Amino acid sequence: xxxxxxxxxxxxxxxxxxxxxxxxxxxxxxxxxxxxxxxxxxxxxxxxxxxxxxxxxxxxxxxxxxxxxxxxxxxxxxxxxxxxxxxxxxxxxxxxxxxxxxxxxxxxxxxxxxxxxxxxxxxxxxxxxxxxxxxxxxxxxxxxxxxxxxxxxxxxxxxxxxxxxxxxxxxxxxxxxxxxxxxxxxxxxxxxxxxxxxxxxxxxxxx
Length: 207
Description:
Number of domains: 2
Oligomer: single chain
Strand content: under 5%
CATH architecture of the largest domain: Up-down Bundle
Number of strands: 0
Order of helices and strands: HHHHHH
Distance between the termini: 135 Å
Radius of gyration: 37 Å
Mean pLDDT: 76
Number of helices: 6
């Protein structure tokens, strides 16, 4: 028997107990595979979540259009949505609600001062101040009313066709238009109420 020949008992032992390098390599492969599967699982879960949310927001037709065309709205509906978005933005950008709140606070202060007036001198001063305030308020309210009228005209000009293929999105836009219109009406009513209140306050000391 040649001295270089590996004994059978040693060869069998090596087969039963692989080297540490082989074991480490196999373990690394398993770790990589598990990590890849985890990434795929996360990606699939996220895609499913986004798809479900898209269906809730745009319906099936809108979701399919969003996937293939990048926009859930057909051109006519996109135009309507753009008008609504611009109108909602303008309501916030013009700070209409904040300015009305400021005027309402000024009205409360002016009403309080008018009610507490006793002497004729103080009454004359209050009347002059009220006249100045009322003129300023009228200009402010006129500006706000003009802005609201412009926004309302754009919103009212939105006409949704019943022949649209995206029934779900059409209904969503109708609801959004209704909410926006209601907000504008409420702001207009506040403008009218403020103007009437300041006018009454202006006339009150002269009675």
